[in-house]
Prior knowledge:
- By secondary structure, the chain is mainly beta.
- The protein folds into two domains: 1-83 and 189-220, Phosphorylase Kinase, domain 1 (2-Layer Sandwich), CATH 3.30.200; 87-187, no CATH class.
- Helices cover 6% and strands 42% of the residues.
- The protein has one helix and 18 strands.
- The chain has one helix at residues 55-67, and strands at residues 2-6, 16-20, 23-27, 33-37, 43-53, 74-77, 101-105, 112-114, 116-119, 126-129, 139-143, 148-151, 155-158, 168-171, 180-184, 189-193, 200-204, 207-216.
- The strands form five sheets. Strands 1, 2, 5, 6, 16, 17 and 18 form a seven-stranded mixed β-sheet that branches. It has a four-stranded antiparallel β-sheet with strand order 7-15-11-12, with no helix packed on it.
- The longest helix has 13 residues, at 55-67.
Amino acid sequence: MFIDDVFPVEASYGTGAGKDFKTTIYVGSSGIEKRNINWSVARGSWSVVLDTLDEDEQAEVIGFFESAHGAGHGFRLRSTHDWSSARTGTKAPEMSAKGAQLLGMGTGTRKTFQLIKTSGSKLLPYVRTISRPLPGTVNVYTGTAQAPVALASGYTVNYGDADNAGGLITFNTAPSTGTHIWASFEFDYPVRFADDKLILSIDDYGKFSGSVNLVEIKEA
């Protein structure tokens, strides 16, 4: 089950975020390596610092942890390191080649396009699926291969729910052949608690602190 709600407390300064790949490396007797990429998409991880929580915030964190049954259920995380379609990931999305993502090209029959975010080298681009867009932030455009040009209309956006991942755009009428489809959006990461234990410290009267480790979950 997925709790289609965002982690209730903002992370404090000092929160860390990273990504993990899984690679098997075989080294022959000659020293030549053969590398097998087991994960085509990295898994995100976060060490979230919770500093100076008041009593209400502490109760929210504990209640959320209990609802998730520790590592049992996933939920949304707004990562301050990467939350938008913009290339930097930390700027508001806009209708430009730097603020929107190219989703694909119309064929005259294709009606659905999945939200994706592309980064890395142009020679070997890295593409990941966006499965938890932030409701109300998705704007779809038509354009060229180089940039979005105009706002599109006549489409719906699946934002995801407790049972299914989202991020799928469906047009009422298939875009014409050669039309490039772009989108700008904000998004959350689907994550879970990395541990089944939560410990918060009492720092002062009515003041609490702690940290939680979160890992990204892959959604089908």
